[in-house]
Amino acid sequence: MQGLTDKRVLVTGGASGIGEATARRFAEEGARVVILDRDVEQLERVRAEQSGLAGTVLADVSDPGSVERAFQELDTLLAGLDVLINNAGISIRHSSFVEVDPEEWQRVIDINLTGVFLVAQQAAKRMLAGAGGVILNMGSTNALTGYRHYFDYNASKAGVVELTRSMALELAPSIRVNAVCPGYVLTPMQEAEYTPELMAELNAKIPLGRHAKTEEVAALFAFLASDEAAYLTGQCYVIDGGETAGALASR
Known about the structure:
The chain is of the alpha/beta class. The chain has helices at about 15-30, 40-50, 65-80, 100-130, 150-170, 190-195, 195-205, 215-225, and strands at about 10, 30-35, 55-60, 85, 135-140, 175-180, 235-240. It has a single domain (about 10-185, about 215-240), classed as NAD(P)-binding Rossmann-like Domain (Rossmann fold, 3-Layer(aba) Sandwich), CATH 3.40.50. The radius of gyration is 17 Å and the shape is globular.
């Protein structure tokens, strides 16, 4: 991708799954990458496996104080920021809407939506003080169509999409802001939870017949951050193998 060499990049939730693959892709593009995550063991593992990282930061994106301290550390590591991959998030499967614990609802909203806001705000301050930049927020196809059992996750991701659009308007022309909305992605954690029968059932809902690879989502992030996407802002880019084209996900 054009224009990623030596870019200063922060990937939140970068110690596993899509975030880990994205950090690796940007490092391969020649960027200076810092990973932010709250999992100490996973951070240590990634630090050992990805020798090209510029650093790692331990932080909880849902805690304003933790985010502020993380960016102070980032200032020391990178002395500025060009690209934010705002990826950190969680999901909880609920058996019943009427029985869910409100604390679980709040936890999902705090990490998936408030966390995106807190990190993006700190990143935008630095980008506006510099030469601008790119903010890419992690959405989901759950933001675009209804899914049973994940109402708090769905609501949080719908909020991320609208936050992205509003940020793009306010921060232009210095900062481009887009959202990436994956469908089913085969992360190691998900794969461990699937039975062969469940995998076959889910793949049958997807026109391309399979889950996305984490590297494929990482490639979309790399493109949207690159100079090749210089006229793209305020949009939600779906990567789902055609899943939502026929509203298959809700059946």
